Amino acid sequence: MLAKLSYPMKKKAKRLIELKNKLDNTKLNKWLIGLMIISAIYTLAFSERYLTYLPIDAILQSLLDTEVSTTNSFIKIIDFTFLGTLIITTSATYLRIKSINKIKDKFQTLREDIISELDTDLCLCNAQCTCKDDFIKYMEEKDINLIFK
Ligand SMILES: [Zn+2]
């Protein structure tokens, strides 16, 4: 099908299919999100203990002359492991969402660009042809809609 199209349209169609494949293959990682939720729940549940790790709390405690609570170092390691996991999984998920949105934007812009050129710069035929319908159907098979903006 693509062979009948004008050169720029052929390039655009190929690029749109590429973007579609990229979009299909760029998913949010379920395990990463699961880990993010678990570590968020953990850090929220023990948020009071996390506060004691802040130096400001130690200063306050010494000012108030109360006993400085020392958390078991094993618990401390677990706390920081969860906090680190939360930071890493949140950053990774944020970056992934950002890149998905970027591909989506590119895909949508190019798709609308192709739709707007369907009646003018589509193919190389001189006589009346069925390229427009053929092209729309061809892209439909690739799960790309060129009918509705
Ligand atoms: Zn044609």
Q: What characteristics describe this protein?
A:
transmembrane helix, membrane, 72% helix, single chain, binds zinc ion, transmembrane, mainly alpha, 149 residues
In words, what does this structure look like?
The protein is mainly alpha-helical. It has one domain (2-141). 72% of the residues lie in helices and 0% in strands. The protein has helices at 7-25, 30-45, 47-53, 55-63, 73-117, 131-141. α1 packs antiparallel against α5 and α2 (30-45) packs across α5. The longest helix is centred in the middle third of the chain and has 45 residues, at 73-117. It is rod-shaped, with a radius of gyration of 28 Å. The model has no long low-confidence stretch (mean pLDDT 90). Zinc ion binds next to loops.
Q: Order of helices and strands, N to C? A: HHHHHH
**Which molecules are bound in this entry?**
zinc ion
Strand content: under 5%
Structural class: mainly alpha
The total beta strand count reads 0
Mean pLDDT: 90
Low-confidence stretches: none
Counted up, domains total: 1
Task: Tell me, briefly, the overall form.
Answer: rod-shaped
Structure at a glance:
This protein has 149 residues and is mainly alpha-helical.
Topology, please?
Elements: H1 7-25, H2 30-45, H3 47-53, H4 55-63, H5 73-117, H6 131-141
Helix pairs in contact: 1-5, 2-5
Bound molecules: zinc ion (ZN).
Zinc ion is lined by residues 4, 123, 125, 129, 131.
